[in-house]
Amino acid sequence: MSEGQSIAPDAKPRLPRGVRLTNSEAQGGWVLLAPERIFKADAIAVEILKRCTGEATLKAIVDDLAKTFNAPRERIHTDVSKLLLGLAEKRLLEL
Question: Is the pTM of this model over 0.85?
Fold first, then answer.
């Protein structure tokens, strides 16, 4: 995926088979586990990823985060899109 690419508002992001978000004491917090790879997830990434169930649309995820954190929707949309596109590029998320 190239820079400037966007995600459709009705896309339903989800973790692909074999990838899971888990709280790991050994890693000191939340991590994305993939075959032979592990990625530490910060608190913001965890909030986004918990909503990537394959059922909620990008629009719904952004709306929920903006409401939950009382933050500007445009900024949330930019941050969420950047994270999801980056994870999709690494094959840690399906859009």
Answer: yes
Residue ranges and CATH numbers for the domains of the chain are 20-89 (1.10.10.1150)
CB environment 2-23: b (16+ within 10 A), e (fewer): eeeeebeeebbbbbeeebebee
Query: How far apart (Å, rounded) are the C-alpha atoms in residues 72 and 23?
Result: 28
The SS3 of residue 46 is helix
- Cα separation, 63 vs 40, whole angstroms: 25
88: left (phi over 0), alpha (psi -120 to 50) or beta: alpha
CA–CA dist 90, 43 (Å, integer): 20
pLDDT tens-digit map of 42-75: 999 999 999 999 999 999 999 999 999 999 999 9
C-alpha–C-alpha distance, residues 14 and 34, integer Å: 14
